[in-house]
Design goal:
This protein has three helices and three strands.
């Protein structure tokens, strides 16, 4: 299974939904998304609500790309 870690500040809805659409179109469907939001957690939850992809949404209060990636890796 492929795990994809997606750190986000929850500010780029168009790019995020385009990513989800692209992942849904893949022929290899054994994947999980680990989405690490560092702000706008409710917004990110709404974006994820409509995806059929298996996902885990982790919410962080602190910001930092490396911190978000490391948090995602631990899951």
């Amino acid at each position: 299974m492929l795990s994809i870690i997606i750190p986000t500040l929850g500010q780029r809805e168009q790019a995020f939904t385009r990513l989800l659409d692209s992942l849904q179109a893949q022929t290899k469907t054994e994947m999980e998304l680990v989405v690490v939001s560092q702000a706008n957690h409710d917004q990110v939850s709404r974006w994820l609500a409509n995806t059929p992809l298996a996902h885990l949404h982790i919410q962080m209060k602190e910001r930092g790309l490396s911190k978000a990636r490391n948090r995602g890796l631990s899951h």
